[in-house]
């Protein structure tokens, strides 16, 4: 499946690959390769926290492949390795429920089914989902708390907090329902609670370098009750859509998961498995997935924090439950039909049935660093906005500079593709689209509109500079220098009189400012950053040093040190290797 793009040096192109994840990964990799920690993205939404966005994956070890491998093969290998991780984790998990043959069948279904490979172009969902079988395997077996915490932490670092939180909740449910160990029920329950708390705290601290900055930006974001109802429910599943897991053709009401088809083998085996006592937990997971995606619309829109956009994202969890039921069902089939060739015949059926259905998800083409049809001056001296008609049916992503395509050539975009946006900036942006004077103040110099011939770019000559001096009477002077990096902004200005210097980059906690090397008081000018200056020539330096990153680093360092220096992780293995009575020293 991945051979074509790998051997041709191509990248996947279906949907969000080209205009979201590829520019995002490429931009981040370039910064890290040049030994710059990308704390801030100055090119979108008048600046936005970059490292705090969990999809960036700066601290996710598998994402470091982009630092050592050329981008095109790195992009495909990154996805391929997570599909393989999902299959291996599923095999381990299902091996606890049945025979190796059943586990192998289940792992093949998980890797090839529509709900899984539909996440290839929303790769943060795929990378996090790939860890969930391992998380559950840790909960079902006697895996050490440190190892369990590490696996849960990796799921959070992989980039999709919703799936990671769902995996952590399922881990807790399995641990508390196991009821194993010695002693009374109260003693066993207390021991399970204590171990669960230890694992939870350790996992949270291990992932703290990503989680703390992420949590810090949520409070003032549109997720705190400002996401429109229609956006929350845009990709809801209906009960009828769930029947498509058994139908290889047709479309669903939602678009988030392009194909929900699970395959005839999975459906038939799952139908056999639902009658087993061991199926209860997986039936609960399947029922919860159906309930959330299809029947909880009003509840989702009334939550104070928008934790689920696009309810169809829970379909892969329901698919995992169905595959687990299929593994349970296989054990009944295996006993009734004890033919040695049957497992491989079922695997062959799965491949023949599923691979043609997911072929469109694996479209590929050469990686293009300069995909935009516009001159490179567009978006370099001022920001871009789009005035798109509401009834637009065909979207030329490159012409509209969709997603993060602006990052390839460092163009400034007044909007962002990020899943989390500052609520105050969202309001300011919406107001600017309705008023020309506010559009000018936002430094919007280019407007993209629809035309009969396609997309047209208009230059706005009255746009204010992206860095300027202004006095109390309204006089303005443009900065002679503006330089933006992923952690700083540098401005050189000649102020005729005392006044304020404004940089049309978002005001955000963590920014500190110096004037001629002397710390100064940062101020706000609407949603932008400002500082008072006296008359004369000044060199102003803004530096981004968010406290959340410092706290997260400290927590992760402490948790990592505890894990590496713990007796269970270090001394026990050393003693087993050198002092075990079973050791053969002859």
Keywords for this structure?
586 residues; alpha+beta; Immunoglobulin-like; 3 domains; five-stranded antiparallel beta sheet; 23 helices; 47% helix; globular; disordered C terminus
Description:
This protein has a five-stranded antiparallel sheet, with no helix packed on it. It has a five-stranded antiparallel sheet with strand order 10-11-17-13-14, with no helix packed on it. Helix 10 (161-178) packs antiparallel against helix 11 (185-206). It starts with a helix and ends in a 7-residue tail after the last helix. The protein has helices at 3-8, 16-33, 65-68, 71-95, 100-112, 114-117, 123-129, 132-140, 145-157, 161-178, 185-206, 208-218, 229-232, 239-242, 264-273, 280-295, 297-302, 315-336, 342-358, 423-434, 436-441, 547-565, 571-579; strands at residues 10-12, 40-41, 48-49, 364-366, 383-387, 444-451, 454-459, 467-470, 476-478, 481-484, 488-495, 499-506, 511-515, 518-520, 523-525, 528-533, 536-544. 47% of the residues lie in helices and 14% in strands. The chain has three domains: 3-365, no CATH class; 383-459, no CATH class; 467-545, Immunoglobulin-like. With 586 residues, the chain is α+β, with helices and mostly antiparallel strands. The protein contains 23 helices and 17 strands.
């Amino acid at each position: 499946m991945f051979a074509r793009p790998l051997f041709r040096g191509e990248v996947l192109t279906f949907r969000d690959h080209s205009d979201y994840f590829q520019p995002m990964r490429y931009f981040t990799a370039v910064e890290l390769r040049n030994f710059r920690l990308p704390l801030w993205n100055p090119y979108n939404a008048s600046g936005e926290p970059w490292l705090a966005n969990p999809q960036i994956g700066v601290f996710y070890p598998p994402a470091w492949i982009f630092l050592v491998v050329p981008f095109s093969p790195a992009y495909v290998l990154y996805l391929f390795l997570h599909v393989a991780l999902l299959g291996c984790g599923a095999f381990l998990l299902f091996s606890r429920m049945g025979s190796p043959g059943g586990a192998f069948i289940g792992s093949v279904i998980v890797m090839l089914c529509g709900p899984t490979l539909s996440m290839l172009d929303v790769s943060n969902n795929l990378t996090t989902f790939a860890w969930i079988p391992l998380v559950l395997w840790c909960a079902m077996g006697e895996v050490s708390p440190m190892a369990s915490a590490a696996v849960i932490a990796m799921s959070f670092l992989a980039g999709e907090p919703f799936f990671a939180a769902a995996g952590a909740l399922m881990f807790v449910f399995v641990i508390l329902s196991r009821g194993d160990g010695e002693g009374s029920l109260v003693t066993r329950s207390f021991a399970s609670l204590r171990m669960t708390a230890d694992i939870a705290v350790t996992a949270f601290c291990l992932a703290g370098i990503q989680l703390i900055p992420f949590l810090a930006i949520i409070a003032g974001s549109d997720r705190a009750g400002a996401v429109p109802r229609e956006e929350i429910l845009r990709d809801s599943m209906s009960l009828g859509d769930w029947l498509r897991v058994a139908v290889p053709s047709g479309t669903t009401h939602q678009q988030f998961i392009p194909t929900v088809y699970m395959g005839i083998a999975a459906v038939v085996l799952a139908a056999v498995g639902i009658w087993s006592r061991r199926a209860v937990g997986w039936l609960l997971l399947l029922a919860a997935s159906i309930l959330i995606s299809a029947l909880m619309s009003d509840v989702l829109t009334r939550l104070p924090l928008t934790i689920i956009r696009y309810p169809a994202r829970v379909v892969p969890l329901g698919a995992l439950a169905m595959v687990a039921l299929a593994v349970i069902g296989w054990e009944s089939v295996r006993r009734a039909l004890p033919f040695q060739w049957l497992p491989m015949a079922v695997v062959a059926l799965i491949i023949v049935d599923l691979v043609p259905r997911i072929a469109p998800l694996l479209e590929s083409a050469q990686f293009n660093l300069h995909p935009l049809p516009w001159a490179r001056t567009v978006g370099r001296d001022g920001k871009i906005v789009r005035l798109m008609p509401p009834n637009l049916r065909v979207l030329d992503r490159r012409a509209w500079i969709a997603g993060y395509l602006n990052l390839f050539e460092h163009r400034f975009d007044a909007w962002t593709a990020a899943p989390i946006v500052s609520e105050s900036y969202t309001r300011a942006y919406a107001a600017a689209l309705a008023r020309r004077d506010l559009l000018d103040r936002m430094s919007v110099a280019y407007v993209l509109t629809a035309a009969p011939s396609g997309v047209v770019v208009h230059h706005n000559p009255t746009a204010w500079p992206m860095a300027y001096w202004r006095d109390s009477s309204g006089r303005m002077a443009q900065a002679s220098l503006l330089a933006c990096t992923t952690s700083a902004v540098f401005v050189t200005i000649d102020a005729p009189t005392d006044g304020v210097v404004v940089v049309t980059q978002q005001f955000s906690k963590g920014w500190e400012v110096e004037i001629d090397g002397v710390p100064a008081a940062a101020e706000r000018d609407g949603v932008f950053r400002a500082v008072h200056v006296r008359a004369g020539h000044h060199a102003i330096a803004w530096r981004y040093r968010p406290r959340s990153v410092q706290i997260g680093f400290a927590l992760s360092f402490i948790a990592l040190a505890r894990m590496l220096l713990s007796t269970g992780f270090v001394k026990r293995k050393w003693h087993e290797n050198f002092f075990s009575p079973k050791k053969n020293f002859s």
